[in-house]
Specification:
heterodimer; A: mainly beta; 6-stranded mixed beta sheet; 3-stranded antiparallel beta sheet; globular; B: mainly beta; 7-stranded mixed beta sheet; 4-stranded antiparallel beta sheet; about 50% strand
Chain lengths: ~110, ~130
């Protein structure tokens, strides 16, 4: 069981908007620790998509955005494209574990 | 550009040891914290260990504490993971990655995003 909970799968048609949730607790997201998001196309290395809740590294399209509220965070993708089909993971820090924690991942299917 | 390259993994018997290395290029290694993250087949990533930019502070996941040791040689642009007393549950692809934050140490490093990852080294623990 991952400390951060994500839905196993989400899907959407090309051009649509989808969101992926990442639910934590008062020892991680809820206490204010930053959330980061990664994209992993199967068989490849994770790629940083969003850092510090809502910042995009250079080269990441503005279609990707992040937010954090209370004990949860969300990744939104607008204008869905076929190339967005991948696994998405959230990451934060947990004060009880004194370590880095990841979500179990969400598989995005573009219909 | 930034490149991280892990050494080859391998197949190891339970109870045995294996050492992974991570060669860094395209950035000043001494300026950044570095981590090892593993991913078992079909699972999400699991953080394993972190070393501060100068190697003076190290942090470990409870699952590997006392068995794994992270180290680095900034003069050689390399980082290492010595894995001892390996167990079947250690089977995974092991990635090295660098922190986004510069010169971080301790909890600040642990809160950082990881902005570049290596290609991964598969490790299988099996008799």
């Amino acid at each position: 069981q991952s400390v951060l909970t994500q839905p196993p799968s989400v899907s959407g048609a090309p051009g649509q908007r989808i969101t992926i949730s990442c639910t934590g607790s008062r020892s991680n997201i809820g206490i204010g620790y930053d959330v980061h998001w990664y994209q992993q196309i199967p068989g490849t290395t994770p790629k940083l998509l969003i850092y510090d809740n809502n910042n995009r590294p250079s080269g990441v399209p503005a279609r990707f955005s992040g937010s954090r509220s209370g004990t949860s965070a969300s990744l939104a993708i607008t204008g869905l494209q076929a190339e967005d089909e991948a696994d998405y993971f959230c990451q934060s820090y947990d004060s009880n574990l004194s370590g880095v924690v990841f979500g179990g991942g969400t598989r995005l299917t573009v219909l | 550009q930034v490149q991280l390259a892990e050494s080859e993994g391998g197949v190891v018997q339970p109870g045995k040891s294996l050492r992974l290395s991570c060669a860094a290029s395209g950035f000043i290694l001494s300026g950044y914290g570095m981590v090892w993250v593993r991913q078992a087949p079909g699972k999400g990533p699991e953080w394993v260990a972190l070393t501060s930019h100068d190697g003076t502070r190290k942090n470990y996941a409870d699952s590997v504490k006392g068995r794994f040791n992270i180290s680095r040689d900034n003069s050689k642009n390399e980082m290492y993971l010595q894995m001892n007393d390996l167990r079947a549950e250690d089977t995974a692809v092991y990635y090295c990655a660098k922190t986004y934050l510069k010169k971080c140490s301790g909890s600040s490093c642990l809160q950082s995003a990881f902005d570049h990852w290596g290609q991964g080294a598969p490790v299988t623990v099996s008799s």
